[in-house]
Amino acid sequence: MNYAASRLASVKPSASAWVSQAARDARARGEDVIDLGLGEPDFETPAHIKTAAHEAALAGETRYPPTGGTATLKAAVLAKLKRENALDYSADEVIVCNGAKQVIFNAMMASLEPGDEVLLAAPYFGQYKDIVLILGGQPVAVECSADEGFLLSPNRLADAITDRTRWLFLNQPSNPAGAVYTDDELRALGKVLERHPRVLILSDEIYEHILFDGRQFMSAAAAWPQLADRVLTVNGVSKAYAMTGWRIGYGAGHAELIAAMTKVQSQISSGACSIAQAAAAAALNGPQDEVRRFRAAFERRRDLVLDHVKSIPGLTLDPPGGAFYALIGCADLIGAQTPEGSLIDSDDALTQYLLQAAGIAAVPGSAYELSPFFRISTAASEEVLGEAMTRIGAAVGRLKLPKTRANPT
C-alpha cells in the first residue's frame, strides 16, 4: 500500500535537517562531529523575553489565541514595521504564524493555482521549492552566479517572467549566500516588476538584523511603494532574537491576501502558541541590545571563516553581506581523489568526504540549486568554527588534485 500522495514524490527532506541528523547519528556511534548544517543561533533567548513568556503563562494567557495573531503581537509587529522599515500597515494586513515557513506555506496555499510558476533566485532556501511543489505550483530556478554576487539582476528577472509567473521569491540577506541588495539594485528590480502586474512578490526578511560591514537594510515593500499591494513581507523572531524553538513568524501584505492566508491557517493550526506570541511581542517591543550583540558576534565569525578559507587552496568564499552562513566554492576540488582513491565528482561527494574524513557536517550546494559549493552555518562559537575550519583545511590538503590543478611542488 502507498500511504504518501503522489504530490510528495518530488519533495525532498530539508537538506540542512538531513545533514544535522547525519551528524547526530555519527555522534551516537561515538564519532567526533561538528555540525555546521543547521542554521540556528547558538545564543540563548534574551532573559526579558523568557520572563514575558513566564508572566503570560501565570496570567492565564493559555487559551486558544485569535487565528491570525493576538492583538498585542499584531500591534508590536505594526510598530516594528513602521519604526524600522517605514512600512505602514493595519491589523487586518498582518498574520502571525508558527514560524516564517508557515507564513510562506499559507501564502502559497492561498494563492497558487496548478501550474503557476514561482521564480526562485538560485541559490535559494530549499524549502521554497518544496512548498511550491506540494501546493501544485512550478518552481523556476533563476541562476544567480558568484560573479553576480548571488544577486538577481533585472535582465535575468525580465527573461524569467512568463505568462504563468505568479510569484517572485526574494530573500535578503539570503540563505545560503548572505547576499544583500543595495537600494538601487532593489529599485531596478522593481522597475521590471512594474511591467508585470500579475506577479506577486514574497520578500523573506528573516535575516534583516544580521548585516555586516555597516550595511543598512531596505525592505522590498519600502523600495517599491508603487508595488506595495503586491508584496508580502515575511519576517519573524527566530534568527535575530535566538528564538528558533518559539516558532513565531509573521507576514504583512494586502488585506485580501492576509484574509485568505488566515482562512488557510484556521484549518491547519488555529493560530500560533499564545505564550510564544507574548514572548515575541516582548522581543519586538523591548530592548535591542542583545540583537546588536548577536550581530557583532556573527560578523566576527564571518571574518574568521573568511580568513581560514583564504589559506585553503581549492576553496573560495565571497564575503557574505549578512545572515550566518558561508557558501564556499569548491570548483577546483571537483575531480580530486581522496586518500582512499574515491573520486570527488560533485559537491555532494565533497561534503560526504568532509563528514567522514574531518567530522564536519556541511550542506552541498546542490541543495540550493547551485554547484559546486557547500554551505556551513557560522552560528557557532569562534572556538568551534576555528576547529572546524582547521579540520576542513587538513582534509582538503589530503586530497589528490587533478594534474591540471595540482599544487605546485
What does this structure look like?
This protein is α/β, with parallel strands linked by helices. The protein folds into 2 domains: 6-44 and 290-397, Aspartate Aminotransferase, domain 1 (Alpha-Beta Complex), CATH 3.90.1150.10; 55-287, Type I PLP-dependent aspartate aminotransferase-like (Major domain) (Aspartate Aminotransferase, domain 2). Helix content is 39%, strand content 14%. The protein contains 13 helices and 14 strands. It has helices spanning 15-28, 47-58, 71-85, 100-111, 126-134, 154-160, 183-194, 220-223, 255-268, 274-285, 289-310, 347-358, 382-397; strands at 34-35, 94-97, 117-122, 138-143, 165-171, 200-204, 231-236, 249-252, 325-329, 336-337, 343-344, 360-361, 363-364, 373-377. A 7-stranded mixed beta sheet has the order 2-8-7-6-5-3-4, with helices on both faces. Helix 2 packs across helix 10 (274-285) and helix 3 (71-85) runs parallel beside helix 10. The longest helix is centred in the last third of the chain and has 22 residues, at 289-310.
